[in-house]
Amino acid sequence: MWYARVSPRTVVWVANRADPVPGPVDGNAGATLSVSRACELAVADANSTVVWSVSPATTGPCTARIRDDGNLVVTDERGRVAWQGFDHPTDTLLPGMRIGVDFAAGNNMTLTAWKSPSDPSPSSVVVAMDTSGDPEVFLWNGPNKVWRSGPWDGMQFTGVPDTITYKNFSFSFVNSAREVTYSFQVPDASIMSRLVLNSSGGGLVQRWTWVEAAGAWNLYWYAPKDQCDAVSPCGANGVCDTNSLPVCSCLRGFLPRSPAAWALRDGRDGCARETPLGCANGTDGFAVVRHAKAPDTTAATVDYDADLQLCRRRCLGNCSCTAYANANLSAPPGRRGCVMWTGELEDLRVYPAFGQDLYVRLAAADLGMFHFTV
Question: Are 371 and 287 contacting, i.e. CB atoms less than 8 angstroms apart?
């Protein structure tokens, strides 16, 4: 499937990407797409051998059509949607498509990059929603984490802080018992934009917009884009900041675990506490890290009924709690909820002007005059 009025051809969805139909370069003329009376949507080769099919749980007769938004939809005789391509993205997220998990439908919607620009078969590069802890999006290359979005703070993913400056876009993040999904919309129908997963360089997420005057796609945003976008380049309890030299430093109250490695600007071993926490004595406090991309939230706990003050008290009352932050910056004060981390803080970075406040637990000896909360 591709845009009708964009040249060169830009493919956004491929049904039988793992089972291509041999044929001429100009479009595999031997292939057919059909929908049967039993409601089976199928791609077959010139010998009528089915290479891809879906069988919606409904009775026929059914019809299939491509909607103007790019969604291939199968509907039953009463016009109800029996199956739709938007629930099964390939490498591209179009406006209205979702990425994440639809628990009610039992559907996990991920992006999988093409193996190469000329080979749409699935590669090892995948973008998927991790729904454990505070949900966030991860870019994987095989078993390796390449990039993460950070959690949703009510307005944007904390790892994509410039989203708040976007014009002509709207974004939706749903976190409920039925689904945990992210999607975007472009209210102005004259604007075309797509989010694409590319396998080059180990994996790239790219947002493109079509510029009619230039007759070309413009790269609007991409990730990973800098040294701090890599997953945990400064290790546990380290802070990555592209505006500092070196880019890695330790959180206040922490020292490098491997000073020799840090001297060579290898921060992957991370940092360890200078002073043990005094939980039993009730003397711990919190240092605030401004403009932060929240640490990895896979094992974090979210409480949408707790404001920051209640979150602080709960964190102090739990000797395993090491940090907390707002969970929903767009909600009214007092109703935002909070995220609490236990154990070490992984993949933490800061930005010059965006991001959120992170409150890191420290022993009393490591709290300075202007770095604690009350």
Answer: yes
Spell out the SS3 assignment of 33-54. EEECCCCCEEEECCCCCEEEEE
CB 43 within 8 A of CB 23: no
Structure tokens at 346: 């992984």
The number of C-alpha atoms within 13 Å of 343 and in the hemisphere containing its C-beta is 9
Element (H, E) at 314: helix 308-316
Contacts of 260 (CB under 8 A, 6+ apart): none
Per the CB < 8 A criterion, the answer to whether 92 and 70 are in contact is no
The amino acid at 330: S
Burial of 246 (0-12, 13-18, 19+ CB in 10 A): middle
Q: Coil, strand, or helix at residue 279? A: helix
Q: What's the whole-model pTM score?
A: 0.90
Q: Are 72 and 1 in contact (CB under 8 A)?
A: yes
d(CA 367, CA 363): 7
Give the span between the Cα atoms of 243 and 264, in whole angstroms: 18
Q: At a CB cut-off of 8 Å and minimum separation 6, what does 90 contact?
A: 12, 13, 14, 17, 111, 112, 120
Q: What is the pLDDT of residues 271-329, one digit of tens each?
A: 999 999 999 989 999 999 999 999 999 999 998 888 889 999 999 999 999 999 998 76
Q: Give CA–CA dist 9/20, Å, rounded.
A: 18
By C-alpha distance, which of 295, 282, 24 is closest to 149? Answer: 295
